[in-house]
Amino acid sequence: MTTMSEESAASPVAGEIATLDRELGEIDMLITQARVEAGRHEQKRSQAADRLGNLASTSGDPKDILELNGQLVGLTRRAALMEAQVDVLEGKRKAIGRYRDSLARHAEVIDRAAANAGPATGADGPLPPAVSRVVLAAQEDLRREIARAMHDGPAQSLTNIVLQAQIVERLVADNPELARAEVGLLIGMVQQTLDATKSFIFDVRPMVLDDLGLVPTLRRAARDRGGRGGIKVDFESLGADRRLPMELESAIFRILDEALAGYLAAGPETVTMRVDWADHLDARVAARRTGPPIPVLEAEGEPKTGKDLPPALASMMADRRADRVAAVDAARNAAIVALPAAPWREIRQRATTIGATVELEDGGGTLHLTVPIARRDAADEAI
Asked: SS3 for 203?
């Protein structure tokens, strides 16, 4: 039975969840309509292609062939646009759905905290304004980021596709040969938009994380991010990996993925990611670049004669050795790719929320994450 205090604690986010449910319903309706429309255009395109093939094989009237070719181009354009719209809508639905589920889980946590707090802390009243502001601000920040990414990415690409389709439509009647070349360009733009949409969905919430777990998701992130940046990323997982609670897997993935993105943005030559499974999860992300050769330091020792060196000679040798030490330090520092400050701040905050330990080693060139998981596994089994 839900108490009044539990209902009041969830009130700041209950309306938001209801709004998201309505949006998901509208998106489902749009997806259904778009799929029906795409199927209809694809059927017409297939019929037009068959008729065009028959006319071409029977040496039909060139005017009819040209007219039918124009119809085929238009139908192909419409079918491609509808398929791209379906992909964009599905990506939006999955992103909003996961956000809605996450918000619902946080609402449950707030309910439990409010119920346990009791009347002495004001649990029977509304949620404290400070907590409410934090929750709502987090929602708006996430919405802002999703909207910006959609506007700058798939939405802009779809606008360019529409413009390219209009160019093709004008060329069909005047210059069919050039129109065919432009259709090829249009198909390439649609494919690029589809790839960008898939990348956007992965960045918002990789579905493979829920389906397959942490290691396959990290492996794909290493491959995709390294491929986009043209930088080799070596990924290695040691030990038997296992599934962890969803919120823990999400936090670990975000920490390592943000570290990977931060290092890649600094322009290294190689990046390595290593995950070691034991009683705790031990992960390292390191970036390096090739610097100047590291000089070899000569071993210090006493003169073989056993006599003290003249002060001038001793001073000269000390200066020479100091120069070599400085050269060694400079060579080593040149090979270090330090993690930028912005992702490091975000990573520390995420690590704190899951009770993990994170530190920078090698002058900032290696991120070391340690997450206790044995205790968590035991607690989950007990539950």
From this structure: helix
CA distance 249 to 233: 21
- What pTM value is reported for the model? 0.51
Q: What is the per-residue burial (b if ≥16 Cβ within 10 Å, else e) of 126-159?
A: ebeeeeeeebeeebeeeeeebeebbeebbeebbe
Strand, coil or helix: 238: strand
Determine the Cα–Cα distance for residues 52 and 62; give it in Å rounded to an integer: 11
CA 285/CA 365 separation, integer angstroms: 8
Mean pLDDT, residues 120-143 taken together: 62
Q: How would residue 114 be classed by pLDDT, with cut points 50, 70 and 90?
A: low
Angle, vertex CA 20, rays to CA 14 and CA 24, nearest 5: 145
d(CA 248, CA 250) in angstroms, rounded, equals 5
Kindly calculate the radius of gyration of the chain based on its CA atoms and give it in whole angstroms: 30
Model confidence at 121: pLDDT above 50: no
**Cα 365 → chain centroid:** 22
**What is the distance between the alpha carbons of residues 296 and 287, in angstroms, rounded to a whole number?**
23
Q: What is the Cα–Cα distance from 160 to 153, expressed in whole angstroms?
A: 11
296: β partners: none
pLDDT of residue 122: 44
Q: Is 58 exposed, middle or buried (0-12, 13-18, 19+ CB in 10 A)?
A: exposed
Name the DSSP class of 233: E
Q: Which of 127, 88, 94 is nearest to 6 (CA)?
A: 127
Beta bridge partners of 160: none
Q: Determine phi and psi for 243, rounding to 5 degrees.
A: -75, 140
Q: What is the side-by-side order of every strand in the sheet holding 357-361?
A: 232-238, 270-277, 280-288, 366-372, 357-361
Residues 6+ apart with CB under 8 A from 203: 149
| pLDDT digits 0-9 by tens, 271-315 | 999 999 988 999 999 998 875 555 555 554 444 444 566 777 777
CA 162/CA 275 separation, integer angstroms:
45
Q: Between β-strands 232-238 and 366-372, what pairing exists: parallel, antiparallel or unpaired? A: unpaired
